[in-house]
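This section describes the prediction task in plain terms. A model, or a person checking by hand, is given the sequence of a single protein chain and must write out its three-dimensional structure as a string of tokens. No templates, partner chains or ligands are provided. The sample shown here is typical of the held-out split.
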Amino acid sequence: MNKLLKFLIASIVAVFAVSGLTACAEAEPMNAADYASVIDVRTVEEWNSGYLEGAVLIGIADSDFRQQLSTLDLSEDYYIYCRSGNRAGQAINIMRDMGFSGELVNGGSVANASNQLGLAVVRP
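The expected answer:
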């Protein structure tokens, strides 16, 4: 009985925790021109499978990720995407820690970002 009660409580907590997560931006249309850059934080291999037209690659796994970010204007707005929104969220946290003060949008996946911004996926 004690295990069942713990399981039920844990399940309820998990449901409320997950329902409060916002991993990526909602799918309402946005204008890419409103952002200083659209940033892809995936790997080069992922980039080569398709990226958003006009996006720049600043891979979060790259050893010089922070150095690449340091070349950007801290006060500008940026739209960041990856494969699922997870790494974009991590990148946004790093950017905030570095002092970025503009709007930082987590666009989620390539497909979501493409739909939201109306940008084509380029397949090299």
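For orientation: The CA atoms of residues 85 and 108 lie 4 Å apart.
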